[in-house]
Amino acid sequence: MSETSPIRVLFLCTHNSARSILAEATLNHIGKGRFVGYSAGSSPRENQQPNPIGLQTLETAGISTAGLRSKSWDEFALPDAPHMDLIITVCDNAAGEVCPFWPGKPATAHWGYADPSAGDGSDADKAQAFRHTLHAIHRRLELLVNLPTDKLSAMVIQQTAKDLAKA
Predict the structure, then answer these.
(1) Which structural domains are found in the chain, ordered by start?
(2) Cα separation of 146 and 139, whole Å?
(3) Other beta carbons less than 10 A from residue 165's beta carbon
(4) Which residues cross the membrane (predicted)?
């Protein structure tokens, strides 16, 4: 990670339709040019698109949804894929979800969030869950993007990201 190139963060979840999409869009919105967010899933469903309630939640918050799509993490293993500096899983271990594992040497952290699209609640209930999840993700990402440069060095970023999971 040089001081001139942005820190590339890949958010992973199983289906890449809700939490990881919220995180990608939010980081790109508040990243201040120092960060670039991406998202992917270990097993996105065929022809899956981001959750429409999630997209509406982002738009209502003034965060661009342009270019967002559900994709497999296989895209980031291709030779021309951008190199990631930090991989953050955003699935919910407490709910028994299996979080994807990313091979290689980027820094990694787990920031667990409950799936706002899960359950049989009404669309209004799900919209509230998406707003709550977006707020929680935004809070952690604000802390990350406002860290001083010395906290973002390759040797320090792993522990910094893990510490933010407790924030």
Answers:
(1) 7-157 (3.40.50.2300)
(2) 11
(3) 12
(4) none
Specify the pLDDT at position 91.
86
Whole-structure pTM over 0.90, yes or no?
Answer: no
Q: Of the candidates 97, 32, 29, 41, which has an alpha carbon nearest to the alpha carbon of residue 67?
A: 29
Q: Which residue type sits at 48?
A: Q
Neighbouring residues of 23: CB distance < 8 A, sequence distance ≥ 6: 11, 37, 39, 88, 90, 137, 141
Full strand arrangement of the beta sheet holding 107-110? 35-41, 7-13, 86-89, 107-110
Question: Looking at residue 1, what is its pLDDT?
Answer: 47
Tokens of 46: 């065929």
